[in-house]
Write a structure and sequence with these properties.
Blueprint: H1 9-15, H2 25-28, E1 50-55, E2 61-66, H3 70-91, E3 113-114, H4 126-144, H5 147-153, H6 163-174, E4 178-183, E5 186-187, E6 191-192, H7 199-208, E7 213-217, H8 227-235, E8 242-245, H9 251-259, E9 264-268, H10 274-287, E10 290-295, H11 298-305, E11 312-316, H12 328-334, H13 336-345, E12 348-352, H14 358-367, E13 371-374, H15 376-379, H16 384-392
Parallel strand pairs: 4-7, 4-13, 7-8, 8-9, 9-10, 10-11, 11-12, 12-13
Antiparallel strand pairs: 1-2, 2-3, 5-6
Helix pairs in contact: 1-3, 5-9, 7-8, 9-10, 12-14
The protein binds the ligand O=C(O)c1ccccc1NCC(=O)[C@H](O)[C@H](O)COP(=O)(O)O.
Length: 398
């Protein structure tokens, strides 16, 4: 057991015993706020022991220390980091867990006894399911295209265009919210929206109808989208700046999106802890991308308003955990002091989801949005160009 005392505080906390991360004195004193990045992976050296896991009659897992190899040390550390990530996220009200809960690796190092809080390996809702799947997808993609090769590919990517500028210009030109028109074949809540789905044709129709920007779903499994759609639209000569509509969990995806021609990327506050958002917003700026930071409730809005550098906030009227859509959500989140702070900071707000009629557009505009993100109501129209005119109650291309 010698050497266990040298485990650092972060490691001890990650193991899930004793005080939680935020109550831990070590972190309470720390500034900036606690983060995964603060774990010192180099010191101290983990002891050469390993753990054996057994289960007691009431279902609790007991871990005892035995010997250990470098490979097992790494697995154990990965598990610890996962635990720590979930703990930080939960402290910010994030309900989405990054990965299915699991016990520690077989050779876990630690003299501690703990109870497995595994509610089963079933995601609690669709958003969580998407994230768990994305985690696997991204790890596989990263193996094929490591960050170092992506960084090299940035040089040959088409230049990033001004996404926020295009929205502001459209609003100034029409007096209506700038439109981000979504190239969306299917969704978990609505199934297939359009059978004859030609992404480039739809993108051109949106542009002709007066869209300021386009949103392209790149998730394959749940939305039948793909990065090939983003690339095809970009190389087809469509001028509207493009939002990569992804479920971002790692900065690697931002680089990947840029190499595929994205001008903006979505960051979902229900999934990403503050520190990740802050860090990702910086990466976006460095790459010339706009970050559309999406919120759904007051707590998420308050978190995002506290993050420096956020210029574009999307209020999603769809609850991504329940699929419930309510456009009064936009109004609720822009009332009072929040709305005032948003105006002071000069943040552009996008009203997202569930917008079908000119009245809906007028309602969210009245609430304070200067842009809207619309998919279903326009993609379903046989002529999406006319669909846009129908949505706004007039031709917005002139
Ligand atoms: O649309 C869904 O069913 C969905 C489910 C889970 C996560 C995200 C989902 N949609 C993403 C969006 O928020 C919308 O595609 C976007 O705002 C456009 O919404 P709409 O105009 O209602 O198609």
């Amino acid at each position: 057991m010698e050497g266990l005392a040298s485990l650092n505080t972060a490691t001890r906390v990650a193991i899930g015993v004793g005080p939680s991360l935020l109550r831990d004195k070590h972190f309470a004193k720390s500034s900036p706020p606690p983060s995964i990045a603060m774990i010192n992976h180099n010191s101290p050296r983990l002891p050469s022991i390993r753990a054996q896991q057994s289960e007691t009659s009431d279902g609790a897992s007991t871990v005892t220390a035995v010997s250990e190899s470098p490979e097992n040390t790494l697995k154990a550390k990965e598990w610890e980091v996962g635990m720590l990530q979930d703990e930080v996220a939960a402290s910010q009200g994030i309900r989405i867990r990054r990965r299915p809960p699991s016990g520690p690796p077989q050779h876990y190092v630690g003299p501690f006894e703990f109870r497995l809080q595994n509610e089963g390996n079933t995601p609690r809702n669709i958003l969580e399911e998407i994230i768990w799947h994305k985690d696997i997808e991204v790890s596989q993609l990263k193996e094929r295209r490591p960050l170092v090769t992506l960084k090299k590919a940035l040089d040959s990517a088409p230049p990033a265009r001004d996404f926020i500028g295009a929205l502001r210009a459209a609003h100034a030109r029409t007096g209506l919210p700038g439109l981000i028109a979504e190239v969306k074949k299917a969704s978990p809540s609505r199934g297939v929206l359009r059978e004859d789905f030609d992404p480039v044709e739809i993108a051109r129709a949106y542009e002709k109808g007066g869209a300021a920007c386009l949103s392209v779903l790149t998730d394959q499994k749940y939305f039948q989208g793909g990065f090939e759609n983003l690339e095809a639209i970009r190389y087809a000569g469509v001028q509207c700046p493009l939002l990569c509509k992804e479920f971002v969990i790692e900065a690697w995806q931002i680089y990947y999106a840029r190499t595929k021609g994205a001008d903006a990327i979505l960051l979902i506050a229900a999934v990403l802890p503050d520190l990740d958002i802050r860090y990702m917003v910086k990466i976006c700026k460095m790459l010339g991308l706009a970050a559309l930071v999406e919120v759904h409730d007051e707590r998420e809005m308050d978190r995002v308003l506290g993050i420096e550098g956020v210029e574009l906030i999307g209020i999603n009227n769809r609850n991504l955990e329940t699929f419930e859509v309510d456009i009064s959500n936009t109004k609720k989140l822009l009332e009072g002091e929040r709305g005032e702070l948003i105006r002071q900071k000069g943040i552009l707000v996008v009203g997202e989801s569930g917008l079908f009629t000119p009245d809906d557009i007028a309602y969210v505009q009245e609430a304070g949005v200067r842009a809207v993100l619309v998919g279903e109501s326009i993609v379903k129209q046989s002529d999406p160009t006319k669909g846009i005119a129908g949505l706004f109650g007039r031709d917005i291309s002139v």
